[in-house]
Write a structure and sequence with these properties.
3 strands
Length: 121
């Protein structure tokens, strides 16, 4: 497959490998990055990378109301970054077992220079 010849040629050709990523691929990235616009949501996600918890306990850890935490959990779940599992009347949340969630976890820790308790063993 040949390189794409751009209309404004600077003596370089656009590599077709760079053109194989679809708009939908970038939309997935944008949806994940939308979750980063709220510090409470980032903190909730980070907590759930380290434990599985219910809304009541997350609310206590965050110092937030249960409805506010539920709002953040719904957004994180809709973006595929966390999962929920019902046990009786409670739903327990944790980080999703996905590459996106793992990368976001590492990125958060590198950005704020904190270390994961699991990595310090």
């Amino acid at each position: 497959m040949s390189d794409i010849c751009l209309p404004h040629n600077h003596g370089k050709h656009f590599d077709n490998k760079l053109n194989n990523i679809t708009t939908e691929d970038f939309q997935i990235v944008a949806e994940v990055f939308k979750q980063l616009c709220d510090s409470s949501r980032i903190r909730i996600f980070w907590i759930l990378c380290h434990c599985e918890e219910c809304v009541t306990n997350i609310s206590a850890l965050m110092g937030m109301s249960s409805p506010a935490v539920s709002h953040h959990l719904r957004q994180l779940k809709n973006s595929g970054l966390i999962t929920g599992c019902r046990h009786g009347k409670e739903v327990y949340y944790k980080a999703a077992d996905t590459k996106q969630a793992e990368l976001l976890h590492v990125m958060i820790e590198k950005m704020v220079e904190i270390s994961c308790p699991a990595h310090n063993r």
